[in-house]
Task: structure prediction
Amino acid sequence: MTPSHAFKSAIAAEKPLQIVGAINAYAALLAREAGFKALYLSGAGVANASFGLPDLAVTTLNDVVEDARRITGRVDLPLLVDIDTGWGGAFNIARTVREFERAGVACVHIEDQVAQKRCGHRPGKELVDKFEMGDRVKAAVDARSDLLIMARTDALAGEGLDGVIERCVHYVECGADMIFAEAMTDLSHYKKIKDAVKVPVLANLTEFGKTEYYTTAQMADAGVDMTLYPLSAFRAMSRAAEMVYATIRQDGTQKDAVPSMQTREELYKVLDYYAYEQKLDALFGKK
Result:
């Protein structure tokens, strides 16, 4: 089964499909252990975690595709990847699509912001017109062999729900397989979008943003096919790291922080560490 077929099968099997962000391959292993059936690599996650930079179009194709390869090389769950605006014009978008397809990615989402983009839940976003975004979608679709193309729109704040729906319908006409309606502020928005586009729709349930923390039951009732939690684990990991660093610095020892840590044995279980050791023993004759 190809990555795109695995992604479509997961969407068909779980309503809505919960997609969790994994900032690296180890986080992807933890997500798989928890039972999730699909993963997400966030552009913000790459910028923040891998480079210590804000999500302001600073990272590049090569930066993101490398992190994607590390995840797909270790975990066999379908991976959705944020490719921002595609990193350039039609030929750049085509190259982007081919690189992510070669990396074993199941689906990418491309957005309708200007190249100097901002986080989808921040003010001051500027969009290209629907025709320019439609051309981005066409370039992506033309370049792919099997990769799924998801079109994201950030139009709600500037153009209202009617503008969102008009854009989404156009993007589907241009070949988008799925729709990502960013920063929705009411549950009813999703049903109206889904009724208009007739393709799978994703809802981003990121924390501290414009969208409420809707449950999967609410999302299913609204016709949403996929719910996204892009940086939930990363935020928790970062807070945990802050607490451990503070404890070591203030106390001169990590002792009080140890109960909150994953143990060595728990780490080894996730990594299947002992199987690797046994393989070494078998290869080199150790009993």
